[in-house]
Design goal:
Length: about 130
């Protein structure tokens, strides 16, 4: 069910539970700022979710309230994950849903990393 992406943060959401180790994930990468793991329902041969360690509902929340260090650390983690997975050639796509019209479902900020095949146009017509 799409959610608003706005605070307050709900710390019972599925990614908060993954961060706390209450639910398993197929981990790809972890550092002080980010955790990355395979999406449970992949939409491309590579579909990784990258989430900040802090409690942010969405990009809107993260960009407005995270520290400079969190923003820099998270952004660099995304680039490193893509590099380490060897995705820079022939390329990849990053996507962050925010709010109901984007179909955001999990209210913890996350970036989708898609790769492994030509990814088509940016938006579906649906
Ligand atoms: P959103 O629509 O919020 O941008 O994307 C949420 C993503 O989280 C979806 O692609 C969905 O497949 C993924 N997802 C939902 N629950 C789980 C889970 O328990 N584990 C993993 N690894 N991914 C999940």
């Amino acid at each position: 069910m799409p959610i608003s992406g706005l605070p307050p943060y709900d710390d019972t959401n599925i990614f908060a539970r993954i961060l706390r180790g209450e639910i398993p994930c197929k981990k790809v990468y972890e550092d002080a700022w980010a955790l990355a793991f395979h999406d449970i329902n992949p939409q491309a041969p590579t579909h990784v979710l990258i989430i900040p360690k802090g409690n942010y509902c969405s990009f809107a929340d993260f960009s407005a309230t995270a520290t400079e260090a969190e923003i820099a650390g998270f952004t660099r983690a995304i680039g490193k994950i893509a590099r380490d997975l060897g995705l820079e050639q022939p390329g990849y796509r990053l996507l962050a849903n925010m709010g109901a019209d984007s179909n955001q479902e999990v209210p913890h900020y996350h970036v989708h990393l898609f790769a492994g095949r030509p990814l088509g146009r940016m938006l579906s017509s649906a």
